[in-house]
Write a structure and sequence with these properties.
The protein has three domains: 174 residues, no CATH class; 166 residues, no CATH class; 165 residues, no CATH class. Helix content is 48%, strand content 13%. A five-stranded mixed sheet has the order 6-7-12-8-11, sandwiched between helices. A four-stranded mixed sheet has the order 1-2-3-4. Strands 5-10-9 form a three-stranded antiparallel sheet, with no helix packed on it. Strand 1 and strand 2 form a beta hairpin.
């Protein structure tokens, strides 16, 4: 076991000559212990200081014919890998395998690694990226953020292939604990490569080296990619398929039936009536008369792909489908494939290519890093799925839920979570302008601030679930005197915000969090607790509020719009402080 004392001793012994930071010496000791290296050799296989491009160490094992590339974090938190893994993806892979000499300030480790790779090029059969830390690798494997970054890293496999002159070399990415424990779902996923009979492509250069390849693709080839990759094909999209009930999808189904089964339309007309699809790929190259597409991801066209798949499944036993196979193979749509593009460039491309179906502003934030981190948070803390992508939870199989560690049968939804954060902040005026929250970058950054990741997930769920019983709770206040409290029907969001504060200010909050905050069900005991707060606390605050001289004229006129303002909330909290010493408690 590598201890703090061992790291501090190694740092004390070598820092004067090697430099670097404390974490570098954890990597040094790991290579000595795990790989059986002498200290003198290990020193030359560890990065000390910066300019490492996301690579902390390496080792070549000639017996196993494996090249090991390491990132080291002396921390139990797998989140520590995010920035360095991103750096490895953005520039590190290209520096390691393709253009090592483009940076004169590169770390000495890259020079040592390059020499090792060249000397052993014919011997290396497997390149293994190992992300070593002191935490649980199973949690790292379940992380949505790390899963996305891992996939992005695997999609750089073509750079490995280029270095080894397309000799079959496997790429393995795994997270492992310093004690040798490996995540249960670590595997040898290969970068998906498809040879497609696209029509001759034309290209359009982008503003900063991006390339758009334009041609026509067969629907059966899109279907093959989808069946092969599953939902990963849609990972860069802002949503999954919207379902056959949507008008656009019904029209696609009718067109497929008329062309393939009925024969009343010619296949060539399909491309004229279709807007086309857009993909992102790591690489597109012409090979033997076809186009080789590396690591494709659909940016727009999920409705086309899912509808075609449903059509094929619905008619798999229909003999007409086999009879009309030539018609099926003639169905093409215009296809644009974007390459050489960063995620920052791909995101607006995705947004602007999804305009044909109504796109809500919150859909456009589905793949933001903070949304991925919230998905990780709810999964790891409570086993609850966070539905950041529209219709994603409905498309999740039981097997996928089990693999991801999801134990709850109901998801936390993105927009309703935004509502919950707003009411906890007392920003109730924004609930009626929720589009603005997602359209204004400044407001969005406030609502989905990284500090939310520090909040107790159980407290978030306690406040989130109030909405499920809000109508009942409002009616219970009104039932205390309909003539006196009927105005409360116009103050639903204010009631939600005050109930949230009532729960968060309750001295028994830890017990409530344990009892009611660990799942999505709303048990009778929790409803009873909320009812008590509503009728004995919130009712009193609202009663005092409308007697306030500042609102006397409005109440006399029957105008209660002030109940939807932040000022009314703040006044209620002043009342609550005087009566029960409540203070503003935020979910962060």
């Amino acid at each position: 076991m590598i201890t703090d004392r061992m790291i501090d001793q190694a740092c004390s012994d070598l820092k004067a000559t090697c430099g670097g930071v404390r974490n570098d010496y954890f990597g040094l000791l790991y290579l000595q212990r795990e790989c059986g290296l002498s200290r003198e050799k290990a020193v030359n296989q560890v990065a000390f200081g910066g300019n490492d491009y996301g690579l902390d160490g390496f080792h070549f094992d000639p017996d196993r014919r494996n090249l090991y590339l390491y990132q080291f974090k002396y921390s139990p938190s797998h989140a520590q890998f995010k920035p360095t893994l991103q750096r490895l993806i953005d520039v590190g892979m290209e520096r390691i395998f393709l253009t090592p000499n483009q940076d004169d300030n590169k770390n000495q480790l890259l020079l040592q690694l390059r020499s090792c790779m060249i000397d052993n090029r014919a011997l290396i059969d497997q390149v293994c990226f190992r992300f070593v830390f002191t935490g649980d690798p199973a949690e790292a494997e379940r992380s949505q953020v790390l899963d996305k970054l891992r996939e992005d890293l695997e999609n750089k496999k073509y750079l490995v292939d280029q270095f080894f002159a397309n000799r079959q070399v496997t790429l393995v990415v795994e997270f492992r604990s310093v004690d040798g424990k490996v995540g249960p779902v670590a595997d040898m996923r290969q970068t998906r490569v498809y040879d497609l009979p696209l029509t001759d492509l034309i290209t359009q250069p982008g503003p900063d080296g991006q390339v758009m390849h334009i041609g026509f693709i067969r629907l059966i080839d899109l279907n093959t990619i989808h069946r092969d990759m599953g939902q990963r094909f849609f990972e860069r999209n802002i949503r999954y398929g919207l379902g056959s009930s949507e008008a656009v999808n019904r029209a696609l189904s009718r067109a497929l039936k008329q062309i393939v089964l009925d024969g009343t339309e010619k296949p060539a007309v399909f491309a004229f009536n279709h807007n086309g699809i857009t993909m992102f790929a790591e690489k597109v190259e012409r090979v033997d008369g076809q186009y080789r597409v590396t690591a494709p991801r659909l940016l727009n066209g999920a409705q086309t792909v899912t509808t075609f798949n449903e059509f094929m499944n619905a008619n798999k036993d229909n003999p007409r489908l086999a009879e009309q196979r030539p018609r099926l193979e003639d169905l093409r749509v215009m296809c644009r494939v974007i390459t050489n593009a960063t995620p920052e460039f791909v995101t607006p491309v995705t947004i602007n290519n999804n305009r044909q179906n109504p796109v809500e502003p919150w859909n456009l934030h589905a793949n933001d890093l903070i949304q991925l981190e919230l998905q990780d948070k709810f999964r790891s803390d409570l086993g609850i799925y966070y539905e950041r992508q529209e219709e994603a939870f409905a498309n999740l199989s039981y097997e996928e839920m089990e693999e991801q560690g999801i134990t709850e049968g109901k998801a936390v939804e993105l927009v309703r979570l935004a509502h919950t954060f707003l009411v906890s902040d007392g920003a109730i005026d924004k609930l009626s302008r929720i589009r603005e929250v997602f359209e204004d970058d400044r407001i969005y950054a406030q609502v989905f601030n990284p500090s939310r990741l520090k909040a107790d997930s159980r407290h978030i769920i306690l406040c989130y679930k109030i909405h499920f019983r809000l109508r009942k709770l409002v009616n219970e206040i009104v039932d205390k005197g309909r003539n006196k409290y009927e105005f409360v029907l116009r103050a639903r969001n204010l009631v939600w915000a005050l109930l949230c504060q009532g729960i968060l200010n309750d001295p028994e909050l830890p017990d409530h969090a344990d009892a009611f905050g660990q799942g999505m069900a709303v048990p009778a005991d929790y409803t009873a607790l909320l009812s008590q707060i509503a009728t004995t606390r919130v009712r009193m605050m609202l009663s005092d509020l409308i007697r306030d001289s500042a609102y006397a004229d409005k109440v006399a006129e029957g105008s209660f719009a002030f109940l939807r303002t932040n000022t009314a909330y703040n006044r209620c909290m002043e009342i609550a402080y005087k009566k029960w010493k409540w203070v503003d408690k935020r979910l962060k």
